[in-house]
What we know:
Blueprint: E1 7-16, E2 21-29, H1 38-48, E3 56-63, E4 69-77, H2 80-86, H3 89-95, H4 105-116, H5 122-135
Antiparallel strand pairs: 1-2, 2-4, 3-4
Amino acid sequence: xxxxxxxxxxxxxxxxxxxxxxxxxxxxxxxxxxxxxxxxxxxxxxxxxxxxxxxxxxxxxxxxxxxxxxxxxxxxxxxxxxxxxxxxxxxxxxxxxxxxxxxxxxxxxxxxxxxxxxxxxxxxxxxxxxxxxxxx
Length: 136
């Protein structure tokens, strides 16, 4: 094999009709080369299974000791809508399909402490006021 060649083999292939996807274990053989990027694996799997790379989700790759072989897991959805419906939010974020906005830790703590000072349904009002104030 040449330096840039990476062979991809799939095993334990399963068609999951309930989740509208194909799932499989992926073995990547890459002797004399560093670990293959997931984007490249997605493109090759997309070509192998006659689909686009945006519906292929690869994760859980572990390189064997000594290098040359990496094993992981892949999911190929029937459509992007099914992927958005069933995939965890963090994987969608990795693909760039979802943007997670987090409130700063200090703001969360301040809000919590303000809520401790009031009782009952007023807690929601304190939280909403903090959100409105933080938006300005």
